[in-house]
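Quick one before lunch.
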Amino acid sequence: MHRVFLLGRGDFAEWRDAARALAAAGVAPREVEWRTSGENELFAAGQNLPKALPRARARALTVPAGFLELAEAVVCHTEPGRFHLLYRLLWRLQSDRNLLALPADEDVARARLLARNVHRDSHKMTAFVRFKEVFGEAVGRRRFVAWFEPSHFVVARTAPFFRRRFADMDWMIATPRGSARWDGETLAFDPRPCENPGHDDPMDDLWCTYYASIFNPARLKVKAMQTEMPKKYWRNLPEAALIPGLIAHAEANVRAMAERAASDPPLFHHRLQDAAPTLPQVRLESPGTLDALREEAGRCTRCPLHCAATQTVFGEGPQGARIMMVGEQPGDQEDLAGRPFVGPAGRVLDAALHEAGIARDSLYLTNAVKHFKYVPRGKRRLHQRPDRGEIEHCRWWLAKEIDAVQPSLVVTLGATALHALSGERRPLSEVRGKPIAMEGARLLYPTIHPSHLLRLPDGAERLRQHALFVEDLRAIRAMIERAHSLC
Ligand code: URA
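Model of the uracil complex:
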């Protein structure tokens, strides 16, 4: 009997080398006992393997490509019989090349089931790892740590996903089944079990606020959520504590949303329209103060968008604001409230501004287009992008606002505002964060629109993009502080 000791922590090469030696020497599966061991015993493993045979006497081994892929997943399972199962399959494949095509075969079915469990565990890891920033003395790249508890040995096989996604930061994922580390150059895996670093991140509170604000109760599917997000992962997710409360209030929140949506927009519009004939039409020469401009814009009929919108949503903020932020156009809630950025995108913007240390009331906030453009769908109004003509008409107001506010920096949120204010036609991803000169000493700083973050389906990616947006805002704050300390 050959007794083989393996470390058994998902290292495919470890099993492969032992299996190759045994099979080449013609050792049948019933003559092998596979054991997993601690590190010390592993060194004894070689003594239990048959001596390498001379080439001429060794059995030539071949396997179909599908077997390697299957075996690489199966060795990551925690099932104690996995090595024996794989060796039996390897042995049988030497005389039956089509074995893997028989789904009813007991060994094949078992191996496929184990592989599926591993794939699922790996997928869960990509979805539920939450990095926390490690703040310290070190300068340079930001450092993050995450604690995750996988069911199987999936850390090494899943780590390349995180290297691709989070290449620009240093990170470590610690688990009881080994750890992975990335320093910008090397992705290293250590099979030794880790302890929970128990790291707290002040960002967790912010992430929870953000999660709660983007949670859409109308899309809640509790069953799907429970299947996709099993309870065992909850204890490491900062947002998990919020979920029961969000679910409990979902029905009431959906009702409140429906009531808000039921405020029939044409009704608002007609009330304003009825009042309009008694007001003078817009004058071409504006007196220049923000209040006068706002009043005048309230009667704007420069393009057909005023017909369906409830009201003009003009910019707001102090006349001498150093930073002007320009969005695309008001959304549903802004149209009803008559104020910019008070809906979901506004809440994302508020959270990011807070994190970057910029007070919202120090900014002048406005939009490239001042009326809400939408298509009605039942009681809902679906946002539609303004077209070139509409942006062009509204640029008249934007120019007046810039004249009145005289900001040092104009921040464009998203592509519409960028195109409205610059000749720039390159994609936003190419010009983001690169200041563009405007007239005088004024600069334009292009960044993303906060609603972009609301559309990202993947939580980890959303968090990453949120952090990048905050970085843009911090850069904006630094530019303004530098410029004004020189004055
Ligand atoms: N999106 C915008 O571009 N502006 C707003 O005011 C709200 C949402």
